[in-house]
Amino acid sequence: MTRRVAFVYEDAVSQHLLRGDHPMQPIRLRHTYELLQAYGAFDGDTSLLLPPRAATEEELGWLHSPEYISAVRSFSQGQSGYEPGRFNFTAQGDNPIYPGIYDASALSTGASLVAAEMVASHRVDVAFNISGGLHHAAQGHASGFCVFNDPALAIKYFLDLGLRVAYVDIDAHHGDGVQDFFFDDDRVLTISIHESGQFLFPGTGHVAEVGSGKGVGYSVNIPLYPYTDDDIYLEVFREVAPPLLRAFAPDVLVTQLGIDSYHSDPLTHLQITTRGFVEAVRELARLDVPWLALGGGGYDLGAVARAWSLAYGVMLDVEWPDRIPDSCVQFVGTDQLRDTIRPEIPRDVQAQARRFAEETVSAIKAQVFPVHNL
Predict the structure, then answer these.
(1) pLDDT (tens digit, 9 = 90+) per residue, 12-54?
(2) Which of 133, 150, 169, 127 is nearest to 315 (CA)?
(3) CA distance 195 to 183
């Protein structure tokens, strides 16, 4: 099936620096774009390359508090009218203040809104903003490298158009910020598959977090044991996500495609390869509904470029050659697009991961499936 696909990018989204030693390196966005460009991803009539725009203060205010927005703008300009700690900013922590933080954050958020507008207007079937997916940010504070919550703002945009939204988050970290914004809303189904909060930031995303009020049964969490591999990951994902998504029948799909689940990512412990990642993306593509795709975590920079390039190939229904173009080998770190070797995991760890996964699926089927008549 031929899809019309938009890719939202310009170099401005990749040029800020959080801190010299910070794991979130925006240059990974430039690397992804350059790899796709080398593959000719933007040459065809069905692939549209679009520039972002900055989100307006009014748009940020759909979900973020006026004081928080003003504080981020103040920090961005080097002013001292607000205490950074009140908003979870610290010099050496996850959320440092850097020159231009407001502009950089508003631009990546606006890029998600550009993508959402393209999908809502049916000008494209899929739009991918790799600079988005900053799913931890809260109403009044930063969290987990995230300043403004662009996935939640995009969902709000769709809701205001009267659309029902499914949000699927495959980042290794729980999509806590997005879940919190819509915890009591049955117009939004959130599904997050992630390394369990027992072992990883932000410490949330347990199966029992099923929503509140009208939203009971519409927050779905799939926590996994550290060192879960492709096979277990895909089994669990397929057993939970597609049935719930079909039952919910969304008007639009929003996905956060973080690739910090990758086996060599320095911040997490899942053991996913490009195979597991791409197969999960294919499952999402098979839903065949208007689709807004966002980036997210990913701190092995070469793996980010390869995985998101493969994801864009899924959106276009194109298989890129496995040989990395010569111009990209140095920054990708390999000459092969797809993984051919799986990480070795001790049998006892695999067994523990499988038991953990089976318990997770059983609990979800008991607590959530009945709400959707499954």
Answers:
(1) 999 999 999 999 999 999 999 999 999 999 999 999 999 999 9
(2) 127
(3) 20
Q: Are strands 165-169 and 188-195 parallel, antiparallel or unpaired?
A: parallel
Residues 295-309 have pLDDT tens digits of 999 999 999 999 999
Residue 116 CA: distances (Å) to CA of 155, 157, 268: 9, 8, 29
DSSP tag of 42 = T
The structure tokens listed for 84 are 């950074």
20 contact partners, CB below 8 Å, separation of at least 6: none
Percent over 90 (pLDDT), the chain: 98
Among 176, 171, 208, residue whose Cα is nearest residue 190: 176
Residue among 172, 161, 181, 145 nearest 65 (CA):
181
Mean pLDDT, rounded, for 237-258: 98
Burial (CB count <10 Å: 0-12, 13-18, 19+), residue 354? middle
Residue type, 67: E
Question: For the purposes of burial, counting CB atoms within 10 Å of the CB of 348, is it exposed (0-12), middle (13-18) or buried (19 or more)?
Answer: exposed
Q: What is the pLDDT of residue 2?
A: 84
Q: d(Cα 23, Cα 145) in Å, to the nearest integer?
A: 9
Nearest C-alpha neighbor of 144 from the set 105, 107, 176 = 176
CATH class of 5-56+103-372: alpha beta
Q: Which residues pair with 189 in a beta bridge?
A: 166
CA pair distance 261, 229, nearest whole angstrom: 10
Its pTM surpasses 0.90: yes
Instruction: Supply the angle between the helices 301-316 and 274-285 in degrees, to the nearest 10.
Output: 30
pLDDT value for 1: 65
DSSP for 257-291?
---TTBTT-SS---BB-HHHHHHHHHHHHTT-S-E
User: Active-site positions?
Assistant: 136
What are residue 3's phi and psi, to 5 degrees?
-105, 150
